[in-house]
Amino acid sequence: MSSSPQSPLPPVRRVVTGHNSAGKSTVIADTAQQARLATSVNPVYDLHYTGESPAVIDTEISKGKWVDEVTQHPELVSGSGSTFRCWDLPPGDVSPLHRTVTLDYAIISRGTVTLELEEGERVTLKAGDTVIQRGTMHTWRNETTEWAQVYFVMLGAKPIEIGGKSLTEEFHEAK
């Protein structure tokens, strides 16, 4: 990991909508989201989490209050639901080489990042580019002098089976 200073990017604002007791639309949360690791030089903002699919989206009605699943689940990803996350990458940062058993939609919102696959294939991505990550081993690299920011929607998926072997979640130090 880089020894860059704290992120100069503003915290991510999260607005959550729901329903009042009359069934009318309302805003139930509007906050600057706290980073998962507040002392980290590369903040990760967990924006939403669902433990199942189809998602339960009426807790403010069915339980009398909104249940923010982000605060109840420390897992990296939801195995049978969804995770919505934002990640700030400092200059020179490299993620671990990893695979999650998920279908991920990534949107580069700021800067430039490089997606590198396990055999060295590389794709440079800039703001506005998208990636559909389908359970492959990969790493994210910020090889620039500017901060980058990526949003992810991660959906639980079935493990990939190749030659009788299941490709499961893995994390390794990047090279």
Summarize the structure in short.
InterPro entries: Cupin_2, OryJ/VirC-like, RmlC-like_jellyroll, RmlC_Cupin_sf. The protein has a single domain (13-172), classed as Jelly Rolls, CATH 2.60.120.10. Helix content is 2%, strand content 46%.
Summary tags:
mainly beta, 1 helix, single chain, Cupin type-2 domain-containing protein, Jelly Rolls, globular, 5-stranded antiparallel sheet, 14 strands, 3-stranded antiparallel sheet, 175 residues
Examine the secondary-structure arrangement and name the CATH architecture. Answer: Sandwich
Largest sheet: 5 strands, antiparallel
Tell me the number of helical segments per DSSP (H or I, 4 or more residues long): 1
Specify the CATH class.
Mainly Beta
Order of helical and strand elements: EEEHEEEEEEEEEEE
Residue share in helix: under 10%
State the CATH superfamily name: Jelly Rolls
* Radius of gyration over all CA atoms, rounded: 18 Å
Poorly predicted regions: none
Domains, number: 1
How much of the sequence is in beta strands? over 45%
InterPro entries: Cupin_2, OryJ/VirC-like, RmlC-like_jellyroll, RmlC_Cupin_sf
Region (Disordered): 1-22
Protein name: Cupin type-2 domain-containing protein
Organism: Mycena rosella (Pink bonnet)
